[in-house]
Amino acid sequence: MIILERDGIFILETENTHYVMGVNCQGELNHLHWGKKCNIDDYFVNYKPWERSSNHSARDFAKTEYLPYGGAVYRPVALTCTYPDKCREVMLTYKDFNITEDDGAFVLEIILEDKPYKLEVSLFYKLQENTDIIERWSAIRNCSDSLVTLGKIASGEFNFPSKRPYTSTNFNGTWLAEFRKEETVVKNGVLTYESRKGGSDHTVSPFFVLSQNADEQQGDVFFGALAWSGNFKVEVSRDCVGVTRAVIGINDFDFSYNLHAGEEFTAPSVYCGYVQGFGKMSNLMNDYAVEYILPKSFAKEPLPVLYNSWEATWFDVSCEGQQKLAEIAADLGVELFVMDDGWFGSRKDDHAGLGDWYVNKEKFPEGLKPLIDKVTSLGMKFGLWFEPEMVNPDSDLYRAHPEWAYHYDTRTSTRLRDQLVLNLTREDVQQHVFSCMDDMLNEYDISYIKWDMNRCYSETGAENLENPQELWYRHTKAVYEIADRLKAKHPGLQIECCASGGGRADLGALSHFDMVWTSDDTDPIDRLEIQEGFSLIYPTKSMRAWVTDTNRGSRPNDWDFRFNVTMQGSLSIGGNLLKYDERELEIHKKYIALYKEIRETVQFGALHRLANFAQDSIYANEYVYGNQCVLFLCTDVTTFFNDKFYRITLAGLEEDALYKFEYEGEEKVLSGAYLMNVGLDYEMGSSLQSKIIVFEKVQ
Ligand code: DGJ
To answer: Is the pTM for the entire model greater than 0.70?
Structure first.
């Protein structure tokens, strides 16, 4: 890992790649290369400012490293701004660079400037040891003595080497259907993935993945994932000379930012890399997230098996009812008991109570102590649900402070799920929200918070702000700050990020929260696809998955199938335990015990996506960690015409090592080479069959 500067050329050398930039004859920073390594002395800048009498603009076609809007530029840009003299164009030229060391990592800062206006832009590139991931971000400094208004502030612009069209992968999801992969070939124009809803949303995700002829093992894959949970924008474009680019960052929709004299704005990080194959990308990002992105306190600890009462009781929680569930959960081997919505204020359904974060005395006459004492005496930790950013108009909080919700006096505020969004850009609201949760954490033995967020923003009036268009940015920052403050004050606290399922599941959330709630869709068949999409770029251990009673009737699936699917993330239980018979409880016990034996492999191991329904009519996912390998097989809804035979060849094992496992009721020991090159035949006769096979390395 090195960072080199040679005559205005900057070379970032990761484990297997080079990322290279150079200052051109006009003093602008051009992108030169991203891909396999070359001889570092060979790089040179070949930029021809060929504006003569033609209608073409060289800047518009150039491979630029961070193109602002200014001059003859017509494609998606990284930066826009309005200066005090009303000039709305930025021209950046190279000024300086720094290379620093930060806790074992190297950081390159390239400083660009718009001289007449004393505006500086720093582009940062951070390289950690032994990885191909580069962390990129930008910072804008106003060194003048007047206010400038920033419009768009991308975290990075990226250029891709091939002239041929790339395939762009993202999601096309919604609530109850998150992370459903969608591929688009980008031949021309601009393909935009964005959120305008306040959170990063269920629909698309803040990343770009651009590939050519790629599958799990091979083919060029370029990717960049933004650590931001608010409105974002990813613009992937291809011009008529075949240059594909991506600009990624905070969304400029209804956004601007007042940068006062002497102030700096730092854009969120984007983690990017170039690899061969999607499998490599997922595993690189998984390992990197555990090492550098997830909150340090729990990043390297396996997550506990959790019970969540939501689907068992909905809003109808009571001390006695929860205690009964807790008793059974503990007996099954659950380690953390989480009470979901319904415990506070006058909450009976979703029409009232949000904002009143004190215990409902009808449901819990003696407060939460009797329940929490019960849970902890059973050897489990206790967790509690909050939706801190929201308020129901029917709440004491709203009656006391209607002005605390975003609103316009002249408009009727839209109620989604009968709730409004609190104006978290106000310091008094931030402090109130923090104190409500902090008070509960001080009073009770609470180890876990599920932080929910169940509506998109609308009528976003924020008259408290000098520039109300900053609210999209400031709100998300406030969420991060409150979560960080709670974690700092209560060191044992884990926080799960939820937004009607996976509506705020991104690397920004995962920098401040320990995990996410993946989807309200707990149907295991749907979940296989949801989990596959999630695993593309987000870390396995952060993916909370519940075994529930959900069984959409038309396609019954058994407990084995549900556990098999759910154990591929952070296992949780979410059904109504009170209704289970002895056999069902025994099945729960068996799988929870098995999960504890394999969870390090699942949560930290390398994932090999061997087969999926779309291509193979079976999902085969394999996790390898240390001496253990776990293979999960789940078949789809088959016809009765044929019994199904599957040959599964494993991946990621040591060729010469021997692996012990159970095969057709007998113990077998086979070499890694055999398992990877010949494979194993599995007959899985009827619909929705599943198997979990554990391989232990014996030599
Ligand atoms: C939406 C979440 O995704 C659910 O898990 C549950 O917590 C409900 N909100 C509670 O209202």
So the answer is: yes
